[in-house]
Amino acid sequence: MQWGGLQGKSLTIPAQAADYTNPKVWEQAESLPAQNEAELSPMTIKPGEVAGVSKSYTFRRDMAVLNVPLNIGYGESVYLKITLQGFSKDVFLRMPGLAARNTGNGKTQNFSLAVKAGREKKLMLLKDTADWGRDGMVTVSLYQYDTITPPRTVLISENQWVAECHTAGEYFYEVKVPSDGVLEIESGEDPNRGADDVLRRRILETTLLNSKRVEVGSPQWSPNDKKQNARQYVRKGTYYIKMKDASGLIQFRYRFTKMKTAKNTKQSKAQSVKKGKTVKGILAAGEGKKNCRWHKIVIPKKRKVSITVKSLEGKDDEMCAYLYKKGQKKVIASVTGSGKLEYVKDVKKIIASVTGSGKLEDIKDFKYAYAKKFPLEKGTYYLKIFKNNKKDSIQYSVKWK
Q: pLDDT tens-digit profile of 227-254?
């Protein structure tokens, strides 16, 4: 297409939107009739607030280009929200720190502007030739967040929304956990983004630390889907949540759900599991091999049994389980990554065990075999469950039949 008849100026419009990243296109656009507006400076808002309209423009029918100088200052980040109305085709846009892109008619789009050296920069919009002779509306919001430097540690309550924009550094949020249960981190929504914008919900990196500020959980993310919030199984106590967001914008709350758990930390305190019943437990963040859980199974007469130990988080390969007969130290069965407790057969002593990899590790050249259902003599048996990685956090279930 050609922009022609505009005070004798001409511009070839590329057929593909991607071609608008070519600087030569924008150099040519500089020679077209331009509507030059006054400089805009960003408003300052608090996280969680809706940015008001900075300025609405009528993109006049006799103009091909709309220029708006932006004084973005020396802040951490500046954001632009733009809405177009009344255009039949896309409007192409160029702005500081971002390549040219097309902006759909009738939709609100959001951009984060790179702040370098704090000098004045320009927003430039280019019409499609199909919209020559047609007025269009351009609404712009230019804003930045009120950046604070809070204390390094802030005590927060359950369901309390935190909405802050931080300067560089690490910040910790102290939480008090009243009992065993699950701690869930829900990221907040940016009200300045549309409902269908995948970035409307903040994507936060969260790390759990214990009362001594030692990391007890691997970094997790609270992404766009609420069903995928960061979750950690914890014991009663004081914890710290370390938050990160690339932009420094932090919006989240935590929720705690109490869980009834047994005090089965020793074989002598093993929790009974009845035939056909499911018993649940947790292997909390910060717990390792020494923080095992014990369950007791009573077999009234010799029979074949099937025992299933399963992670409810889909982490079967991160957990281990050993079965012992009362009064004996020999492992007679161990769990694999499938979650099925399987029998170590024809061994005279402990020659192998199953780790998180699900592989049977042979210590000596003894014969061994597996069976999904295996025979157990009448008696009492103990199931020892633990995890190797202290930063894993698992809820598991035990069932036998």
A: 578 889 999 999 999 987 767 788 899 9
Collapsed DSSP state (helix, strand, coil) of residue 20: helix
CATH number for 154-254 (one of 3.40.50.300, 2.40.50.140, 3.40.1180.10, 2.60.120.380): it is 2.60.120.380
For residues 243 and 219, the answer to whether their CB atoms sit within 8 Å is no
- Alpha-carbon distance of 157 to 41, in angstroms, equals 37
**Which residues, other chains included, contact 23 with Cβ-Cβ below 8 Å and sequence gap of 6+?**
none
* Phi and psi at residue 359, to the nearest 5°: -95, 140
The candidate with the shortest Cα–Cα distance to 78, out of 251, 248, 250, 252, is: 248
Euclidean distance between the first and the last CA atom of the chain, given in angstroms as a whole number: 75
Predicted TM-score of the model (pTM): 0.76
Q: Which of 356, 355, 313, 310 is nearest to 331 (CA)?
A: 355
Dihedral, 11, 17, 22, 26 alpha carbons, nearest 10: 40
Structure tokens at 154: 């802030």
